[in-house]
Design goal:
Blueprint lengths: L2 H13 L1 E4 L2 E5 H7 L5 H17 L4 H4 E9 L5 E10 H9 L6 H48 L5 H16 L3 H8 L13 H20 L5 H21 L13 H15 L6
Helix pairs in contact: 3-5, 5-6, 6-9, 6-11, 7-10, 9-10
């Protein structure tokens, strides 16, 4: 495909993009001739295959293929409404993937929308990584605070480690060492560094509850505080189970230190280079 053809197609796709209910979309009626289709009916068949692909990927068809009406002018000057579909970028990508690959326009669209969709995926993944790093930092802060509260009430660092381990047993139904092997965490690394975001937040909630209750109930000594922490973790576990979530069955997550390094590396790339 020649450079001018690519530029022309790029301009065509960009010119018909519109905003529909706050989302960037393309009208199927405007799109199909640009994709090299002369008949709407044939393009509708392509869209149906694209909808099947959307459904198979676990996405909501309704979120990406919105049926709407469109007014068109007749030769007499009168207007009538015809069916149209608003397609998100992802929908357009799926349409291109299910189109006739022999058409140059389809080949271009496959790559055009793949690049844009990939950008969205990268942003989404970065947000998920960022949220997990934030959750892990919050848990570390909560546990540091809890450790201080417990120290003032007669529990040393060894006692705190035992209490935390008993909490893990209540939350996951498994000992910390077994959970570490399950998620692939090295023996000397914290379990939380390899947990999913929701599991990290579950530990954080239980620790927050213990911190609050130890002070409100004026608990002292390892035995009473240990019981409190077990009860709080058991309560959080029960809440998760009620919603169909088994914390010990959640998939292991990437080493949080690797995630942090990746985020920092990406941040460095967008910083302006210092002049020498």
């Amino acid at each position: 495909m020649k450079a001018q053809e690519i530029q022309d197609l790029f301009n065509s796709f960009e010119s018909i993009a519109i905003e529909y209910e706050g989302v960037e979309c393309w009208s199927a009626r405007d799109l199909y001739p640009i994709l090299g289709y002369s008949k709407w009916e044939r393009f509708k068949d392509v869209m149906e295959r694209a909808k099947d692909s959307c459904n198979n990927s676990g996405e909501s068809v309704a979120d990406h293929f919105a049926g709407v009406g469109k007014m068109v002018q007749l030769g007499s000057g009168a207007e009538r409404q015809i069916d149209d579909v608003m397609l998100t970028r992802y929908a357009c990508y799926l349409v291109a993937q299910n189109g006739d690959p022999r058409k140059l326009e389809i080949a271009f669209a496959q790559n055009y929308f793949a690049v844009q969709t990939r950008r969205a995926e990268l942003v989404h993944q970065r947000i998920l990584d960022f949220e997990r790093v934030q959750a892990r930092a919050k848990l570390a802060e909560t546990e540091h605070t809890l450790s201080g509260v417990l120290y003032e009430r007669g529990v040393d660092s060894k006692g705190f480690a035992i209490i935390r381990a008993k909490g893990d047993r209540a939350l996951f139904g498994l000992d910390t060492a077994i959970m570490k092997r399950k998620v692939g965490a090295p023996e000397k690394r914290p379990l939380a560094d390899f947990l999913s975001t929701i599991a990290i937040k579950a530990k954080d909630l239980a620790a927050e509850m213990t911190s609050v209750n130890v002070q409100q109930k004026d608990l002292h000594g390892q035995t009473g505080i240990e019981r409190e922490h077990i009860d709080n973790n058991s309560a959080v576990r029960g809440m998760l189970l009620d919603r169909g979530i088994r914390p010990e069955a959640l998939p292991a997550a990437e080493d949080i230190k690797k995630v942090e390094r990746r985020l920092k590396s990406e941040e460095k790339k967008i910083l302006p280079k210092k002049k020498k």
